[in-house]
Amino acid sequence: MGGDGRRALSGLHAAIIMDGNGRWAVARGKSRTAGHLAGADAVRRTVEAAPDHGIDILTLYAFSSDNWRRPPEEVGALMRLLRRYLMAETGRCVENGVRIQVIGRRDRLASSLVREIESAERATSRGEKLWLRIAIDYSARDAILRAALRLRTSLPPGDAAGDSGSQGSQGSQGASPEGRAPHPGAPISREEFSRLVAECPEERAHDVDLLIRTGGEKRLSDFLLWECAYAELIFTERMWPDFGAADLEAAVLEFRHRERRFGTVPAAAAARAAAAGSATSATPATIAISAVRDGGRGAHPDAEIAALAMP
Prior knowledge:
This protein has eleven helices and six strands. It is an alpha/beta fold. It folds into two domains: about 10-255, 3-Layer(aba) Sandwich (Undecaprenyl pyrophosphate synthetase), CATH 3.40.1180; about 265-310, no CATH class. It has a six-stranded parallel sheet with strand order 3-4-2-1-5-6, with helices on both faces.
């Protein structure tokens, strides 16, 4: 448990680009708004199923910064739907241990939606079963740009001079415990910069393990570009309103069968090299194998050394 009562996060971070609502509706002779309403049901199904498949962080791409270019009627319908979703689902999330966090800009959202976001975040802040992150008015390139600007100016996140009027998801956040970026010119680690990108000094979601995009398109669309550096990508033809627990299970199963090397040699080759050499000490190869088998995080290398020493 952390200082606020939350457990340490050790499961998968899955991110989903929820694409295909409009095309799903048009194919059925319905309005695009009807497609978004059906998509909200798919969100509910996915949130309920995620913990059963080892997912403890789920980030959903609800509305990109580029989506403001859509027809005003559709944008308005989406914003109303987002507000209604939060109003309807917050109580269910509290009961099921789901913590809600909205990432992205808030300065361009209606005040009524911002109030609903803040209320949902407060009410669910103690949730430990699933961390549900919803990206609204989100752009990964803008998030990276804001982080670089704060690094250059040593301004805390949320400062108007550093963000050019663009607020992040949390007010005064940054790389250091004090919420301030490192001094200009000072060395900075990837972890520190990741905290600047995430705009969260106290706790940030670990990098994405699995990214799913529905609807048949095969691109990232400015979503979590920094966090997806080593994500496994799965693209499905299924439209988002039809996505369900079985689809999520299939995606996680595909993920489990992939070999994640993180720049190292393949696990089979590493195992042969380690077996031919020394199986009594922690070598880079055995550590790499441990990382791959554990999804890239946390298994103790001694367990892999013991396995390699067996006939």
